[in-house]
């Protein structure tokens, strides 16, 4: 019933919506064909983790940055490196450490004594895909430099503003903040991540497959380049044409507003447990991520299940609980689950 209710129709005032959606669906099939090759390559080196792969693809299609959180050894870095390699373009990896400087990220001026001239040496941020490994181990100055790059797609270097390549995407990994030697990311920077994906342990069968696969060779698995950055840009150009029913837009707004005021949806017991809810940026991100999810499914229109599928990764890092919630053992994930149950799905 869900598909039937929200499939676009030629209702009065909407023009030829069905015809338009059919055309968009055809463009999705054409411009998204390369994604099957990308997934196939990733599956050649990864065991399981399909939800992680889909989340990264949603982030890339929606032109957003993605934060991966999980304990060490769960293939976060391998996944990001492999994905970047399948897409071609330029890829850089930087290991975030407490002694990292902003110049290590954005670059610096270098003096040539022989020529008595200064030249600019660009840092690793000048890449199509930047892997910020263990991002929560870097100090505040480095985070500030990265924030400008993530939000403005530019950096300030040698007194000039320099544009970053297009596409530009930060795929960051972090260990949970309770791990020794890590620091909570600034709220302003966390909000710039379109998605936060939590990476969990594999199942027993998946872990056995990993052991068997790695036991067969000592070499690090590699993937082939099967796409170009132009393919990704062409796919992104279709995203804004994917139809989102006004009823679903209302659902997105109601869900985000409920994160700020749980009592408005009947969750009065949560009112004192939420310190900050999601901002309007989250509403925009939720719609765009839902469109990207529909794109991956080959549809020219968004369904409620698309919104619910991306609601957790879009909202989990934008919802801050109070000290009272911490004392009662209530996490932001638990609050989010209650909100998803309370807000009526159209």
Automatic annotation (TrEMBL):
<keyword id="KW-0067">ATP-binding</keyword>
<dbReference type="InterPro" id="IPR003593">
    <property type="entry name" value="AAA+_ATPase"/>
</dbReference>
<protein>
    <submittedName>
        <fullName>ATPase family associated with various cellular activities (AAA)</fullName>
    </submittedName>
</protein>
<dbReference type="GO" id="GO:0005524">
    <property type="term" value="F:ATP binding"/>
</dbReference>
<dbReference type="Pfam" id="PF17863">
    <property type="entry name" value="AAA_lid_2"/>
</dbReference>
<dbReference type="Pfam" id="PF07726">
    <property type="entry name" value="AAA_3"/>
</dbReference>
<dbReference type="InterPro" id="IPR050764">
    <property type="entry name" value="CbbQ/NirQ/NorQ/GpvN"/>
</dbReference>
<comment type="similarity">
    <text>Belongs to the MoxR family.</text>
</comment>
<dbReference type="InterPro" id="IPR041628">
    <property type="entry name" value="ChlI/MoxR_AAA_lid"/>
</dbReference>
<dbReference type="GO" id="GO:0016887">
    <property type="term" value="F:ATP hydrolysis activity"/>
</dbReference>
<dbReference type="InterPro" id="IPR027417">
    <property type="entry name" value="P-loop_NTPase"/>
</dbReference>
<dbReference type="InterPro" id="IPR011703">
    <property type="entry name" value="ATPase_AAA-3"/>
</dbReference>
<feature type="domain" description="AAA+ ATPase">
    <location>
        <begin position="62"/>
        <end position="203"/>
    </location>
</feature>
<keyword id="KW-0547">Nucleotide-binding</keyword>
């Amino acid at each position: 019933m869900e598909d039937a209710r929200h499939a676009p129709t030629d209702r009065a005032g909407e023009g030829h919506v069905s015809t338009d959606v059919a055309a968009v669906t055809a463009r999705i099939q054409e411009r998204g064909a390369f994604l099957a090759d990308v997934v196939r390559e990733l599956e050649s080196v990864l065991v399981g983790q399909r939800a992680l792969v889909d989340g990264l693809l949603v982030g890339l299609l929606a032109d957003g940055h993605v934060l991966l959180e999980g304990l060490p050894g769960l293939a976060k870095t391998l996944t990001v490196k492999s994905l970047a390699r399948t897409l071609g373009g330029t890829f850089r990896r930087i290991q975030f450490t407490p002694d990292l400087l902003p110049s290590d990220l954005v670059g610096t001026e270098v003096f040539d004594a022989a020529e008595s001239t200064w030249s600019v040496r660009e840092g690793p941020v000048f890449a199509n895909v930047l892997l910020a490994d263990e991002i929560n181990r870097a100090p505040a100055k480095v985070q500030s430099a990265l924030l400008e790059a993530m939000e403005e797609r530019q950096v300030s270097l040698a007194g000039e503003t320099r544009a970053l390549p297009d596409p530009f995407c930060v795929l960051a990994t972090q260990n949970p903040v309770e791990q020794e030697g890590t620091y909570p990311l600034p709220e302003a920077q966390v909000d710039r991540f379109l998605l936060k994906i939590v990476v969990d342990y594999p199942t027993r069968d998946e872990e056995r497959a990993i052991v068997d696969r790695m036991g067969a060779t000592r070499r690090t698995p590699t993937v082939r380049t099967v796409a170009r950055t132009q393919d990704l840009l062409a796919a992104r150009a279709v995203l804004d044409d994917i139809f989102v029913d006004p009823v679903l837009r209302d659902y997105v707004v109601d869900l985000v507003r409920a994160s700020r005021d749980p009592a408005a949806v009947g969750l009065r017991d949560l009112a004192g447990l939420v310190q900050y809810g999601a901002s309007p940026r989250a509403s925009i991100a939720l719609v765009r991520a839902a469109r990207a999810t529909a794109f991956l499914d080959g549809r020219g229109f968004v369904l409620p299940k698309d919104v619910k599928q991306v609601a957790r990764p879009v909202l989990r890092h934008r919802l801050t609980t109070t000290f009272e919630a911490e004392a009662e053992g209530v996490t932001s994930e638990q609050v989010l689950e209650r909100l998803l149950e309370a807000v009526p799905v159209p």
